Amino acid sequence: MTQVKLSSKYQLVIPKKVRETLGLSAGQEFTVLTRGKVIELVPVDSLESARGLLKGANPKDYRDHQDRF
């Protein structure tokens, strides 16, 4: 487990090993979530990276509007 220190400007440095493992790059955006006293940083993916995500999906058995109450 690696520890980092919050700077006087309220900034954190993500350790190099973590950046390399997750493929993070400078300027990348994150969503910040809090769960109690835990802070989660979730990298924001571009819409381009989601292209083809649902390729081959078969919507045949999805619920229809008639199934809703």
Name the overall outline. Answer: elongated
Number of helices: 1
- Quickly give the structural class: alpha+beta
What about the largest sheet? 2 strands, antiparallel
Description:
- The protein has 69 residues and is α+β, with helices and mostly antiparallel strands.
- It is 10% helix and 17% strand.
- The chain has one helix spanning 16-22, and strands at residues 30-35, 38-43.
- Strands 1-2 form a two-stranded antiparallel sheet.
- The protein starts with 15 loop residues before the first helix and ends in a 26-residue tail after the last strand.
- The relative contact order is 0.10.
List the helices and strands and how they pair.
Elements: H1 16-22, E1 30-35, E2 38-43
Antiparallel strand pairs: 1-2
Descriptive labels:
10% helix; elongated; 17% strand; alpha+beta
Give me a quick take on this structure.
With 69 residues, the chain is of the alpha+beta class. It is 10% helix and 17% strand.
